[in-house]
Amino acid sequence: xxEVVAGVAIFACLAGAALVSLMVYERFPAHHRQDDTSxxxxxxxxxxxxxxxxxxGLMINSAKSSFETIDHNVHTFxxxxxxxxxxxxxxxxxxxxxxASLTAYLQRLVDAASDTQRTPTVANRLSExxxxxxxxxxxxxxxxxxxxxxxxxxxxxxxxxxIEQRWVLVEQSDGTIPVPLIALLVAxxxxxxxxxxxRAPRNGTIVATFLISGALAAAAIYLILDxxxxxxxxxxxxxxxxxxxxxxLTE
Length: 251
Known about the structure:
Layout: H1 2-24, H2 35-91, H3 96-112, H4 125-139, H5 146-171, H6 179-197, H7 204-228, H8 240-250
Helix pairs in contact: 1-6, 1-7, 2-3, 2-5, 2-6, 2-7, 2-8, 3-4, 3-8, 4-5
Protein backbone atom coordinates (compact mmCIF):
# COMPACT_ATOMS: atom_id res chain seq x y z
CA UNK A 1 0.00 0.00 0.00
CA UNK A 2 2.86 2.39 0.77
CA GLU A 3 4.32 1.91 -2.71
CA VAL A 4 0.92 2.68 -4.30
CA VAL A 5 0.58 5.90 -2.31
CA ALA A 6 4.12 6.88 -3.30
CA GLY A 7 3.38 6.19 -6.96
CA VAL A 8 0.21 8.32 -6.92
CA ALA A 9 2.02 11.14 -5.10
CA ILE A 10 4.88 11.05 -7.62
CA PHE A 11 2.43 11.20 -10.53
CA ALA A 12 0.70 14.21 -8.97
CA CYS A 13 4.03 15.97 -8.45
CA LEU A 14 5.31 15.37 -11.99
CA ALA A 15 2.09 16.11 -13.85
CA GLY A 16 1.43 19.08 -11.57
CA ALA A 17 4.90 20.55 -12.20
CA ALA A 18 4.43 20.36 -15.97
CA LEU A 19 0.88 21.75 -15.94
CA VAL A 20 1.67 24.58 -13.54
CA SER A 21 4.65 25.59 -15.70
CA LEU A 22 2.42 25.48 -18.76
CA MET A 23 -0.26 27.66 -17.16
CA VAL A 24 1.94 30.33 -15.55
CA TYR A 25 4.36 30.83 -18.45
CA GLU A 26 2.23 33.53 -20.09
CA ARG A 27 2.22 35.50 -16.83
CA PHE A 28 6.00 35.80 -16.70
CA PRO A 29 7.47 39.24 -17.49
CA ALA A 30 8.54 39.64 -21.11
CA HIS A 31 12.27 39.53 -20.32
CA HIS A 32 11.75 36.10 -18.65
CA ARG A 33 10.32 34.67 -21.87
CA GLN A 34 13.22 35.43 -24.16
CA ASP A 35 14.93 32.70 -26.18
CA ASP A 36 18.13 32.97 -24.12
CA THR A 37 16.19 32.31 -20.91
CA SER A 38 14.48 29.29 -22.45
CA UNK A 39 17.83 27.91 -23.62
CA UNK A 40 19.34 28.16 -20.12
CA UNK A 41 16.29 26.50 -18.56
CA UNK A 42 16.56 23.58 -20.97
CA UNK A 43 20.30 23.24 -20.38
CA UNK A 44 19.69 23.01 -16.63
CA UNK A 45 16.94 20.44 -17.22
CA UNK A 46 19.26 18.39 -19.44
CA UNK A 47 21.78 18.23 -16.59
CA UNK A 48 19.18 16.70 -14.29
CA UNK A 49 18.01 14.33 -17.02
CA UNK A 50 21.47 12.75 -16.96
CA UNK A 51 21.60 12.67 -13.15
CA UNK A 52 18.08 11.21 -12.90
CA UNK A 53 18.98 8.49 -15.39
CA UNK A 54 22.02 7.52 -13.31
CA UNK A 55 20.01 7.42 -10.07
CA UNK A 56 17.23 5.39 -11.69
CA GLY A 57 19.82 2.91 -12.95
CA LEU A 58 21.31 2.59 -9.46
CA MET A 59 17.86 2.10 -7.93
CA ILE A 60 16.96 -0.61 -10.44
CA ASN A 61 20.25 -2.40 -9.81
CA SER A 62 19.81 -2.16 -6.04
CA ALA A 63 16.21 -3.41 -6.13
CA LYS A 64 17.10 -6.24 -8.51
CA SER A 65 20.05 -7.32 -6.37
CA SER A 66 17.94 -7.24 -3.20
CA PHE A 67 15.13 -9.19 -4.87
CA GLU A 68 17.49 -11.90 -6.16
CA THR A 69 19.21 -12.20 -2.77
CA ILE A 70 15.92 -12.67 -0.92
CA ASP A 71 14.68 -15.11 -3.56
CA HIS A 72 17.86 -17.15 -3.06
CA ASN A 73 17.41 -17.01 0.72
CA VAL A 74 13.81 -18.27 0.42
CA HIS A 75 15.07 -21.26 -1.59
CA THR A 76 17.74 -21.88 1.05
CA PHE A 77 15.14 -21.56 3.81
CA UNK A 78 12.89 -24.15 2.14
CA UNK A 79 15.84 -26.50 1.66
CA UNK A 80 16.81 -26.25 5.33
CA UNK A 81 13.24 -27.11 6.34
CA UNK A 82 13.28 -30.23 4.15
CA UNK A 83 16.65 -31.34 5.52
CA UNK A 84 15.43 -30.82 9.07
CA UNK A 85 12.37 -32.96 8.39
CA UNK A 86 14.58 -35.68 6.89
CA UNK A 87 16.71 -35.76 10.04
CA UNK A 88 13.61 -36.02 12.22
CA UNK A 89 12.35 -38.91 10.13
CA UNK A 90 15.72 -40.62 10.41
CA UNK A 91 15.60 -40.37 14.19
CA UNK A 92 12.39 -42.37 14.40
CA UNK A 93 8.73 -42.15 15.37
CA UNK A 94 9.66 -40.35 18.61
CA UNK A 95 9.95 -37.14 16.60
CA UNK A 96 6.37 -37.31 15.34
CA UNK A 97 5.26 -34.38 17.49
CA UNK A 98 8.21 -32.26 16.36
CA UNK A 99 7.51 -33.09 12.71
CA ALA A 100 3.85 -32.17 13.20
CA SER A 101 4.85 -28.78 14.63
CA LEU A 102 7.29 -28.22 11.78
CA THR A 103 4.61 -29.10 9.21
CA ALA A 104 2.13 -26.78 10.92
CA TYR A 105 4.72 -24.02 10.82
CA LEU A 106 5.34 -24.48 7.10
CA GLN A 107 1.61 -24.77 6.38
CA ARG A 108 1.08 -21.45 8.12
CA LEU A 109 3.77 -19.82 6.02
CA VAL A 110 2.18 -20.99 2.80
CA ASP A 111 -1.35 -20.02 3.89
CA ALA A 112 -0.22 -16.59 5.11
CA ALA A 113 1.12 -15.47 1.72
CA SER A 114 -0.93 -12.51 0.49
CA ASP A 115 -0.50 -9.12 -1.17
CA THR A 116 -1.47 -7.29 2.02
CA GLN A 117 1.32 -8.63 4.23
CA ARG A 118 4.84 -7.27 3.96
CA THR A 119 6.55 -10.41 5.30
CA PRO A 120 4.02 -13.26 4.95
CA THR A 121 6.64 -16.02 4.94
CA VAL A 122 8.56 -15.22 8.09
CA ALA A 123 7.36 -12.50 10.43
CA ASN A 124 4.23 -13.92 12.07
CA ARG A 125 4.53 -14.30 15.83
CA LEU A 126 2.65 -17.61 15.99
CA SER A 127 5.00 -19.02 13.35
CA GLU A 128 7.94 -18.19 15.60
CA UNK A 129 6.25 -19.96 18.51
CA UNK A 130 5.77 -23.09 16.38
CA UNK A 131 9.50 -23.14 15.56
CA UNK A 132 10.35 -22.71 19.24
CA UNK A 133 7.99 -25.59 20.02
CA UNK A 134 9.97 -27.81 17.64
CA UNK A 135 13.11 -26.94 19.58
CA UNK A 136 11.46 -27.76 22.91
CA UNK A 137 10.25 -31.10 21.60
CA UNK A 138 13.73 -32.00 20.37
CA UNK A 139 15.26 -31.04 23.70
CA UNK A 140 12.79 -33.33 25.49
CA UNK A 141 13.99 -36.38 23.55
CA UNK A 142 16.21 -38.92 25.30
CA UNK A 143 18.37 -40.71 22.69
CA UNK A 144 18.64 -44.43 23.51
CA UNK A 145 21.96 -44.89 21.69
CA UNK A 146 24.82 -43.01 20.06
CA UNK A 147 23.30 -43.12 16.58
CA UNK A 148 20.14 -41.41 17.76
CA UNK A 149 22.19 -38.89 19.73
CA UNK A 150 24.17 -37.96 16.60
CA UNK A 151 21.00 -37.63 14.54
CA UNK A 152 19.41 -35.47 17.23
CA UNK A 153 22.44 -33.22 17.31
CA UNK A 154 22.29 -32.78 13.53
CA UNK A 155 18.57 -31.97 13.73
CA UNK A 156 19.16 -29.34 16.41
CA UNK A 157 21.87 -27.74 14.30
CA UNK A 158 19.56 -27.69 11.29
CA UNK A 159 16.79 -26.14 13.37
CA UNK A 160 19.21 -23.40 14.42
CA UNK A 161 19.98 -22.73 10.75
CA UNK A 162 16.26 -22.50 10.00
CA ILE A 163 15.76 -19.97 12.79
CA GLU A 164 18.76 -17.94 11.64
CA GLN A 165 17.54 -17.97 8.03
CA ARG A 166 14.09 -16.86 9.14
CA TRP A 167 15.51 -13.81 10.87
CA VAL A 168 17.67 -13.02 7.85
CA LEU A 169 14.49 -12.86 5.76
CA VAL A 170 12.75 -10.72 8.37
CA GLU A 171 15.60 -8.21 8.34
CA GLN A 172 15.68 -8.12 4.52
CA SER A 173 11.95 -7.48 4.09
CA ASP A 174 11.92 -3.68 4.51
CA GLY A 175 13.80 -2.64 1.37
CA THR A 176 17.16 -0.99 0.80
CA ILE A 177 16.40 2.18 -1.22
CA PRO A 178 16.63 5.22 1.12
CA VAL A 179 13.67 7.61 1.18
CA PRO A 180 15.84 10.77 0.82
CA LEU A 181 17.19 9.41 -2.46
CA ILE A 182 13.66 8.88 -3.76
CA ALA A 183 12.67 12.40 -2.68
CA LEU A 184 15.71 13.88 -4.43
CA LEU A 185 14.95 11.94 -7.61
CA VAL A 186 11.35 13.17 -7.59
CA ALA A 187 12.55 16.77 -7.13
CA UNK A 188 14.83 16.42 -10.17
CA UNK A 189 12.03 14.92 -12.23
CA UNK A 190 9.72 17.76 -11.21
CA UNK A 191 12.27 20.25 -12.51
CA UNK A 192 12.52 18.32 -15.78
CA UNK A 193 8.74 18.17 -16.18
CA UNK A 194 8.45 21.87 -15.35
CA UNK A 195 10.90 22.60 -18.15
CA UNK A 196 8.62 20.66 -20.52
CA UNK A 197 5.85 23.16 -19.86
CA UNK A 198 8.11 26.15 -20.38
CA ARG A 199 7.03 27.76 -23.71
CA ALA A 200 4.97 24.68 -24.66
CA PRO A 201 1.74 25.26 -26.64
CA ARG A 202 -1.39 25.22 -24.52
CA ASN A 203 -3.54 22.51 -26.12
CA GLY A 204 -5.08 19.14 -25.30
CA THR A 205 -2.32 17.12 -26.92
CA ILE A 206 0.33 18.74 -24.72
CA VAL A 207 -1.73 18.23 -21.56
CA ALA A 208 -2.38 14.58 -22.44
CA THR A 209 1.33 14.08 -23.13
CA PHE A 210 2.23 15.51 -19.73
CA LEU A 211 -0.31 13.31 -17.95
CA ILE A 212 0.75 10.12 -19.75
CA SER A 213 4.46 10.85 -19.27
CA GLY A 214 3.94 11.55 -15.57
CA ALA A 215 1.93 8.35 -15.15
CA LEU A 216 4.57 6.22 -16.88
CA ALA A 217 7.45 7.76 -14.91
CA ALA A 218 5.55 7.29 -11.63
CA ALA A 219 4.70 3.69 -12.59
CA ALA A 220 8.38 2.96 -13.24
CA ILE A 221 9.39 4.27 -9.82
CA TYR A 222 6.50 2.39 -8.21
CA LEU A 223 7.67 -0.90 -9.72
CA ILE A 224 11.22 -0.26 -8.53
CA LEU A 225 9.98 0.39 -4.99
CA ASP A 226 7.73 -2.67 -5.17
CA UNK A 227 10.63 -4.87 -6.27
CA UNK A 228 12.61 -3.51 -3.32
CA UNK A 229 9.96 -4.93 -0.93
CA UNK A 230 9.60 -8.45 -2.37
CA UNK A 231 7.01 -9.76 0.12
CA UNK A 232 4.27 -7.34 -0.99
CA UNK A 233 2.78 -5.91 -4.17
CA UNK A 234 2.60 -7.36 -7.69
CA UNK A 235 6.31 -8.27 -7.81
CA UNK A 236 6.83 -10.84 -5.06
CA UNK A 237 9.30 -13.57 -4.27
CA UNK A 238 7.81 -16.88 -5.38
CA UNK A 239 6.19 -19.06 -2.73
CA UNK A 240 6.87 -22.17 -4.86
CA UNK A 241 9.94 -23.31 -2.82
CA UNK A 242 7.89 -23.29 0.39
CA UNK A 243 5.00 -25.06 -1.32
CA UNK A 244 7.34 -27.77 -2.59
CA UNK A 245 8.84 -28.09 0.87
CA UNK A 246 5.36 -28.51 2.36
CA UNK A 247 4.61 -31.24 -0.17
CA UNK A 248 7.81 -33.01 0.88
CA LEU A 249 6.90 -32.79 4.57
CA THR A 250 3.35 -34.09 4.10
CA GLU A 251 4.00 -36.94 1.68
